[in-house]
Amino acid sequence: MQFPITALFAFAVSVASALPFHPVSDIVVSPSVTSPVAGAVWNIGTHQTVTWDTSAIPAANVNNTGLILLGYTTANSTSENLDINNPLASGFPIGQGSQVVTVPKVAPGTEYFVVLFGDSGNKSPAFKIAPATALTPATD
Ligand SMILES: *[C@@H]1O[C@H](CO)[C@@H](O)[C@H](O)[C@H]1NC(C)=O
Ligand SMILES: *[C@@H]1O[C@H](CO)[C@@H](O)[C@H](O)[C@H]1NC(C)=O
Questions:
Q1: For residue 18, is it within any domain?
Q2: Residues 7-62: pLDDT tens digits?
Q3: 75 CB under 6 A from ligand 2?
Q4: What is the residue range of 105's domain?
Q5: Which ligand approaches the C-alpha of residue 65 most closely?
Q6: Is residue 93 part of a domain?
Q7: Of all atoms in ligand 2, which is nearest to the CA of residue 76?
Q8: Residues 112/127, Cβ–Cβ less than 8 Å
Q9: Which of 13, 58, 101, 137 can bridge 88 by disulfide, Cβ–Cβ 3.0-4.6 Å?
Q10: Is 42 helix (H, G, I), strand (E, B) or coil?
Q11: How many structural domains is the chain composed of?
Q12: pLDDT single digits (tens) 97-134
Protein backbone atom coordinates (compact mmCIF):
# COMPACT_ATOMS: atom_id res chain seq x y z
CA MET A 1 0.00 0.00 0.00
CA GLN A 2 1.42 3.36 -1.05
CA PHE A 3 0.71 6.83 0.30
CA PRO A 4 1.60 9.96 -1.63
CA ILE A 5 4.65 11.45 0.07
CA THR A 6 2.88 14.75 0.68
CA ALA A 7 0.12 12.96 2.59
CA LEU A 8 2.70 11.22 4.81
CA PHE A 9 4.43 14.52 5.47
CA ALA A 10 1.16 16.20 6.38
CA PHE A 11 0.35 13.31 8.73
CA ALA A 12 3.77 13.53 10.42
CA VAL A 13 3.41 17.27 10.92
CA SER A 14 -0.07 16.91 12.40
CA VAL A 15 1.15 14.24 14.87
CA ALA A 16 4.16 16.31 15.88
CA SER A 17 2.09 19.42 16.47
CA ALA A 18 -0.39 17.45 18.55
CA LEU A 19 2.33 16.30 20.96
CA PRO A 20 3.04 18.53 23.92
CA PHE A 21 6.46 20.02 23.30
CA HIS A 22 8.87 19.99 26.24
CA PRO A 23 12.16 21.66 25.47
CA VAL A 24 15.03 20.45 27.67
CA SER A 25 15.26 23.82 29.37
CA ASP A 26 11.82 23.27 30.86
CA ILE A 27 13.00 20.30 32.92
CA VAL A 28 13.30 21.48 36.48
CA VAL A 29 16.59 20.42 38.03
CA SER A 30 16.79 20.98 41.77
CA PRO A 31 19.45 18.61 43.11
CA SER A 32 19.33 18.20 46.87
CA VAL A 33 22.23 19.59 48.86
CA THR A 34 24.08 16.90 50.85
CA SER A 35 26.72 19.15 52.42
CA PRO A 36 26.80 21.31 54.50
CA VAL A 37 24.78 19.19 56.89
CA ALA A 38 22.66 20.58 59.71
CA GLY A 39 24.81 22.09 62.43
CA ALA A 40 28.02 22.19 60.39
CA VAL A 41 30.45 24.95 61.34
CA TRP A 42 32.18 27.03 58.69
CA ASN A 43 34.93 29.37 59.79
CA ILE A 44 35.27 32.62 57.91
CA GLY A 45 38.05 32.48 55.34
CA THR A 46 38.19 28.69 55.10
CA HIS A 47 37.45 26.65 52.02
CA GLN A 48 34.40 24.41 52.27
CA THR A 49 32.94 21.92 49.84
CA VAL A 50 29.27 22.10 48.96
CA THR A 51 28.02 18.76 47.64
CA TRP A 52 24.74 17.70 46.12
CA ASP A 53 22.94 14.64 44.80
CA THR A 54 23.46 14.31 41.06
CA SER A 55 21.35 11.15 40.64
CA ALA A 56 18.21 13.06 39.74
CA ILE A 57 19.89 15.26 37.12
CA PRO A 58 18.92 14.18 33.59
CA ALA A 59 21.95 13.40 31.39
CA ALA A 60 21.01 16.25 29.11
CA ASN A 61 21.28 18.71 31.99
CA VAL A 62 24.64 17.77 33.50
CA ASN A 63 26.30 20.78 31.91
CA ASN A 64 23.70 23.27 33.07
CA THR A 65 25.58 25.91 34.99
CA GLY A 66 24.95 26.16 38.68
CA LEU A 67 24.92 28.98 41.18
CA ILE A 68 25.45 28.77 44.94
CA LEU A 69 24.16 31.57 47.12
CA LEU A 70 24.50 32.14 50.85
CA GLY A 71 21.43 33.04 52.81
CA TYR A 72 20.28 33.24 56.40
CA THR A 73 17.09 33.44 58.33
CA THR A 74 16.25 35.57 61.32
CA ALA A 75 13.66 35.08 64.05
CA ASN A 76 10.09 35.87 63.02
CA SER A 77 10.91 36.46 59.38
CA THR A 78 10.46 34.24 56.37
CA SER A 79 13.05 36.15 54.35
CA GLU A 80 15.96 34.02 53.19
CA ASN A 81 18.23 37.07 52.79
CA LEU A 82 19.92 35.46 49.79
CA ASP A 83 23.07 37.34 48.86
CA ILE A 84 22.53 37.42 45.12
CA ASN A 85 25.24 40.05 44.62
CA ASN A 86 28.01 37.87 46.03
CA PRO A 87 27.50 34.28 44.88
CA LEU A 88 29.70 31.74 46.68
CA ALA A 89 30.18 30.09 43.28
CA SER A 90 28.73 30.32 39.79
CA GLY A 91 29.26 28.99 36.28
CA PHE A 92 30.15 25.42 37.28
CA PRO A 93 28.38 22.41 35.70
CA ILE A 94 25.76 21.06 38.11
CA GLY A 95 26.65 17.50 37.05
CA GLN A 96 29.95 17.70 38.93
CA GLY A 97 28.17 17.28 42.28
CA SER A 98 30.50 19.40 44.38
CA GLN A 99 32.01 22.85 44.46
CA VAL A 100 34.59 24.39 46.77
CA VAL A 101 33.66 27.80 48.15
CA THR A 102 35.41 30.30 50.39
CA VAL A 103 33.50 31.33 53.49
CA PRO A 104 32.98 35.09 53.23
CA LYS A 105 33.43 37.64 56.00
CA VAL A 106 29.87 37.85 57.27
CA ALA A 107 28.46 38.33 60.74
CA PRO A 108 28.91 35.03 62.59
CA GLY A 109 25.61 33.21 63.17
CA THR A 110 23.91 29.84 63.33
CA GLU A 111 21.12 30.30 60.78
CA TYR A 112 23.08 30.30 57.56
CA PHE A 113 22.32 28.02 54.61
CA VAL A 114 23.32 27.72 51.00
CA VAL A 115 20.98 27.44 48.04
CA LEU A 116 22.13 25.57 44.96
CA PHE A 117 20.47 26.63 41.75
CA GLY A 118 20.28 24.39 38.72
CA ASP A 119 17.06 25.34 37.00
CA SER A 120 15.42 25.50 40.37
CA GLY A 121 16.84 26.06 43.82
CA ASN A 122 17.54 23.63 46.62
CA LYS A 123 18.42 24.69 50.11
CA SER A 124 20.82 23.15 52.63
CA PRO A 125 19.93 22.75 56.29
CA ALA A 126 21.01 25.55 58.63
CA PHE A 127 24.67 25.68 59.61
CA LYS A 128 26.91 27.98 61.60
CA ILE A 129 29.40 30.52 60.33
CA ALA A 130 32.01 31.18 63.00
CA PRO A 131 34.75 33.78 63.20
CA ALA A 132 38.06 33.03 61.55
CA THR A 133 40.33 31.24 64.00
CA ALA A 134 44.06 31.51 64.56
CA LEU A 135 44.43 27.93 63.36
CA THR A 136 42.60 28.54 60.08
CA PRO A 137 43.77 31.93 58.83
CA ALA A 138 42.07 33.39 55.81
CA THR A 139 44.00 32.43 52.72
CA ASP A 140 42.45 34.83 50.29
C1 LIG B 1 29.00 17.93 28.99
O2 LIG B 1 30.33 18.40 28.90
C3 LIG B 1 31.28 17.36 28.71
C4 LIG B 1 32.67 17.99 28.75
O5 LIG B 1 32.75 19.09 27.91
C6 LIG B 1 30.99 16.65 27.40
O7 LIG B 1 31.89 15.58 27.21
C8 LIG B 1 29.56 16.10 27.44
O9 LIG B 1 29.23 15.51 26.18
C10 LIG B 1 28.56 17.20 27.75
N11 LIG B 1 27.25 16.60 27.92
C12 LIG B 1 26.14 17.18 27.46
C13 LIG B 1 24.87 16.43 27.69
O14 LIG B 1 26.12 18.26 26.89
C1 LIG C 1 9.91 36.78 67.72
O2 LIG C 1 8.60 36.52 68.20
C3 LIG C 1 8.57 36.11 69.57
C4 LIG C 1 7.14 35.73 69.94
O5 LIG C 1 6.23 36.67 69.43
C6 LIG C 1 9.12 37.24 70.45
O7 LIG C 1 9.12 36.84 71.81
C8 LIG C 1 10.54 37.58 70.00
O9 LIG C 1 11.04 38.68 70.72
C10 LIG C 1 10.58 37.89 68.50
N11 LIG C 1 11.97 38.04 68.10
C12 LIG C 1 12.40 39.02 67.29
C13 LIG C 1 13.86 39.01 66.96
O14 LIG C 1 11.66 39.88 66.84
A1: no
A2: 444 444 343 444 444 444 556 788 899 999 999 999 999 999 999 999 988 899 99
A3: yes
A4: 33-130
A5: 1
A6: yes
A7: 1
A8: yes
A9: 101
A10: strand
A11: 1
A12: 999 999 999 999 999 999 999 888 899 999 999 999 86
Pocket test for ligand 1, best of 61, 62, 94, 96 (most atoms within 8 A of CB): 62
Helix, strand, coil shares of the chain, percent, nearest 5, are: 15, 35, 50
Q: How far is the C-alpha of 6 from the C-alpha of 14, rounded, in Å?
A: 12
Task: Outline where the chain has alpha helix (H).
Answer: 5-18
The answer to the question of residue 6 being in a domain is no
CATH code at 73? 2.60.40.3720
C-alpha distances out from residue 118 to 14, 126, 139, Å = 34, 20, 29
What is the whole-number distance in angstroms between the Cα of residue 63 and the centre of ligand 1? Answer: 6
Bridge partners of 31, per DSSP, are none
CA 55 to ligand 1 center in whole angstroms: 16
- Distance separating alpha carbons of residues 29 and 60, to the nearest angstrom: 11
